[in-house]
Amino acid sequence: MANETRAKIDPRGRKVKILATTGPSTADPDVLRRLFKAGADAFRVNMSHGEHEIHAKTIANIRALEKEFHRPIAILADLQGPKLRVGQFADGRATISHGATFTFDRSSEPGDENRVELPHPEIFEVIEEGQRLLVNDGKMRFRVKSVSDDAIVCKAEVGGVISDRKGVNVPDAEIPIPALTEKDRKDLAFAMEQGADWIGLSFVQRPDDLIEARKLMGSKGALCAKIEKPSAVRRLDEIIEQADGIMVARGDLGVELNPEEVPPLQKKIVNATRLTGKPVIVATQMLESMIESPAPTRAEVSDVANAVYDGADAVMLSAETAAGDWPEEAVLMMASIARQVEADELYKDRVRMLDTPPDPTTADAMAHACMTIADTVDIGAIGVFTSSGSSARRVSRERPAVPVMVLTPSMAVARRVALLWGAHPVATKDIGSFEEMVAKGKRMALRHGFGTSGSRLAVMAGVPFGQSGATNLVHVVTVKGDELEGYSGEG
Q1: pTM exceeds 0.85
Q2: How many C-beta atoms surround the C-beta of residue 417 within 10 A?
Q3: At the top level of CATH, which class does the domain 362-478 belong to?
Q4: Active site residue 284
Q5: Is 350 a catalytic residue?
Q6: What is the mean pLDDT of each run of 10 residues along the chain (491 residues)?
C-alpha cells in the first residue's frame, strides 16, 4: 500500500516548491493531509498566532504525513519579531486630518487628535527630521518636522482614524533593537524542541541580527532571513551570506516602500539569493482573493507565474491556507500554475537568464556537468548523494532540466532540502562503495517514479563515500526493470 501511495503522488510534476501556512483552516489532520496531496511540499507554522500546544499538534500531524507517504516534509517555524506600536487613546481612537500636526511622545497619558504615546525610546534615538513614520500598515503617513528627546512632531501627509496599539513602521532609519524578543526566544526554543527544520527570522535589519538566533539554534535547523525592511535590502548580500535561505516578505516590504518599488526588488532579492544556491521563497498575498473565493484573479495568477519564471525555489501561501475558506483549492491552483509555467517551451531559457557561473571547485564543476548532461542526454533525473545537502544546493542552483533526487542518510538534511528548487529528498542508508551507489541510485529512481526499464540516470557523489565535501564523481547509468526484484527494504 505504501508503494502504491508513493506512485500516485511522486514525482510532483514541477520543480518550484509550495510552502503552505498552517492555522485554523488546517486544524483537522485530514485537511492537512489533503493540502499535502494537493501539492504542499512544506508547511509554515506562524508563531505570531496560536499556543504552543496547538502548534505541537500541527507538527505531529505533519510528521505523521511523512510516515504515511514516505516523503520528507520541511517545517518552517516563523517567528513574530518585535512589534512597534503606538499607545492608547482616551476614546480608543482619534481622527487625524490630512496636513494636521501630530506628535508622538513618551508620555503615558491617553492620546487624542493631537498626540499619542510612542513607547519605543529606540525610535527617538535614530529618527530625524524629514523621515517618515507609518501607522496601521502604512495607511497613515507622517513626515517628521522636528525631534527632541521626548517628542517627534510630524505633519500628517495621509491622515485618517488611528486607534489603540496600532503598528508603527520606520522605513527611513535602522532601529537599534534586536530581531528576537523574549517571546521569540521562547518560540525558538519550542520550535527546536519540536524538530522544526527552518526558522523564519523577522525584523532583520542587519547581518548581526542572525547571530543570536544562530547561537540559540546550535547545530539544529536552518535559518531563513525574512527581507521585509529597506535597511535589510541595503545590506542584502551580507544578510544572504549569514543566512541559510531568504524569504521575500512582500507584504511588509510594501508597507515601508512604494508599491511600485517591490516588483523589481523581488527580482533583485531572488537573483542575489539564487547566485549562492540557497533557497529563496516569494511570500505573501500571492493568491489573496482565494481566502474567500474558490478562484484567483488573473493578476494573482500572473504574479505567481512571474515568481516561477524568476526561478524562485518556493512560493508561499499565507492566510489562503491558514484561515481561508478554500485551502485545498489554493494549493491545487498554485501547483497548476507552476506546472503550466514549467511546461512553457521558453521556461528553461527564462529561468536560466540569470548566469550562475560555478565556483572554481570540483563540486561546482560536477554540478554544472550534471546540468549539461541533462540538456544533452535523455535522463529521468539527477541523483545526488549528499550528507550535508551542499551538493544538492549546487545542482539545484544550475536549474537543470530534470528533477534532482537527493539521497541522504540524514532525515534532517532531507527535510531541509525539501524547499530547494527541483529537489526530491529521499532519506536512505549511507553507501560504502561505487557499486552500491549505482545500485541504490537505480532502485530509488524506479521507486520514486524517475525512471522505467531502459531509462538513464545521472548520479553525482563523492569518493571516498560518506565524507562531506568530497564530491568528485558523476556517472550516467541505465536503469533495468528488475532492479527492485527481491528487494523489500526502505534503504
Answers
A1: yes
A2: 29
A3: alpha beta
A4: yes
A5: no
A6: 38 94 96 97 96 98 96 97 97 97 97 98 97 96 97 97 96 94 97 98 96 93 97 96 97 92 97 98 97 98 98 98 98 98 96 91 93 95 94 96 96 97 94 88 92 91 72 88 54 54
